[in-house]
Amino acid sequence: MNFNLEMEKRQEKITGILEYYLPKEEGFQKTVLEAMNYSMRAGGKRLRPLLMLETYRMFGGEGQIIEPFMAAMEMIHTHSLIHDDLPALDNDEYRRGRKTTWSVYGDGMGVLAGDGLLNYAFETAFRAFPACTSGEPVDPNYPRVAAALNILARKAGIYGMIGGQNADIEAEEQAEPLTTEQILFIHANKTAALIQSAMTIGATLAGATDEEIAALELCAYNVGIAFQIQDDILDVI
């Protein structure tokens, strides 16, 4: 098996899924929708939805119930990149070789595009609930989808990614050197939390046990910490 070729095939599949769930650029809110889609189409490794899909398959998951969550995960990740690039934070005009969202659409629209993607991510994830009409029994997948939504919300929020971003902003203004505890908190929440979310959602939707999900969450934590350490080293060299 050619690893790079297989990776490209998977990334193409994920890109197709993302395109399916992107909003149509129409109406009086057309500009923010264009800005959201511009950001989503900026490329990238699609690592988080890829890990989610492969974990889902590893635990025997089948079907398309995973796809809205894959799209939602990439929307949340992209939201974080849009806001990271804003003048109030990193003030970056380029990402992945092209202009950042705020530098194309303005910083106000950049804020709205990030907010829009974060909210639209949950609109998208909710589409994983199987359709049910009055009088039908509850679909057995409902509890799994509900559990996956809980993971998605917590890992993306103040007890996950946003909490890590808060600590990161304050660390930049801190006069004394960061402690190991601070550094690990930032990495665990700003970076590892979404990787944990991706992998545990995949396992949850496939019906993994609580013990398996807990072990996977620890594995994803280590992956996230290692990923951030490598990224920091590359920034220095």
Provide a quick synopsis of the model.
This protein is an all-alpha fold. It has helices at about 5-20, 30-40, 45-60, 65-85, 100-105, 105-125, 140-155, 160-170, 180-205, 210-235; strands at about 95, 100.
Radius of gyration: 18 Å
Strands of the biggest beta sheet: in what spatial order?
1-2
Low-confidence stretches: none
Task: Indicate the percent of residues in helices.
Answer: over 70%
Structural class: mainly alpha
Cα distance spanning the termini: 32 Å
- Strand residue content: under 5%
The geometry reads as globular
Q: How many beta strands in the DSSP annotation?
A: 2
Largest sheet: 2 strands, antiparallel
User: What is the residue-mean pLDDT, rounded to a whole number?
Assistant: 92
The arrangement of helices and strands along the chain is: HHHHEEHHHHHH
Count up the helices: 10
Which keywords apply here?
2% strand; 70% helix; 10 helices; 237 residues; mainly alpha
